[in-house]
Write the structure tokens for this entry.
Amino acid sequence: MEERMMEEFSATVDRWSLLYEWTGPWREYITAALVFLFFLALRGFITRFIFSAILKLANKSRLVIDGKIILAFQGPLKALILVIGIYLSLLALPLAERHYLMLYPIYRTLFIYFLAWGLYNLIDGKNYWSISEKYHIDRILIDFFTKVLRVLIVVLAAVMIVQTWDYNVEGFLAGLGLGGLAFALAAQDTVSNIFGGIMIIMDKPFSEGDWIETSSVEGTVEEMTFRSTKVRTFAHALVSVPNSMIANEALTNWTRMGKRRITYHLGVTYTTPAEKLKKCVVQIRVMLENHPDVHQDTIFVRFDKFSDSSLDIFLYFFTNTTVWGEYLGVKEDVNFKIMDILEAEGVSIAFPSQSIYFENTLSTETE
């Protein structure tokens, strides 16, 4: 039995030897093709099964970042597997020595590129918004520092790739030092904007989505970059304001109002009796004190002054809501209630008018 098995094994080895000898000069090319096909199949297997299984496990994890890491490195890893297959396939080919010497720096360059690609995808501010909500960290702060880290990744990857090709990075940096003064003078506005952005982040005068107003712009904050803050105006235009300008201007954040003010003068006619005017003032004050949408800390309703064509009642109060649409609704409701009070008392709202008196009696001639 053992002898028969040995004979069959020897026959198999002989057949493979004949096949190996028959391939002759095509041997290296066949080997290279088989290696490439193996890594191509491995890439498909990892993409379809391994990544899907790991992603399912990551989704069950309490750490949200696990799934983000897998998604960030999925594309770079697939490309890296293909590059490894090509690299090993080329090593199996009968190439010249100078070509073999070129393969390693190319492979190393691509490896650094794919690693930087994955890290760049991972460091995305949107991936950490849930963390900002959990730990009460401003989104602008997260977006700003993730952009800084992305720039550092690109710079470091570029330096490593340059070193891979045996370029003198120290000499290049020394050359930059010679032109540092000219560069600093040319980039002083950019540097001031960067420091302005840092000051905004430190002071936190606003967040994304806040309604702000400065002497140069008014609208909703959409994004903050190294150089500027993007504000969407109420005309739906997007305005980019330099960070240094915002940092040095007086800024009003309307979103952070605890309550919203309503104040105006209500003019009634001079023919209104004093007693009715007193009743109107009292009833308007009582109406505001009992209104569910009016803030009760500060309410003023007073007969204020004698204007040119009206008796003016001064109103000063606040709404509980700071949302503009809701604020307008409360203001409208209060105005209608004031009209009902005036109508019930028979008091008319004044409008600008003038009375002309003649000292002499006018006479008309008739034929």
Summary: The longest strand covers residues 294-306. Confidence is low (pLDDT under 50) at residues 16-20. Strands lie at 211-213, 218-224, 228-233, 238-242, 252-253, 260-268, 294-306, 311-319.
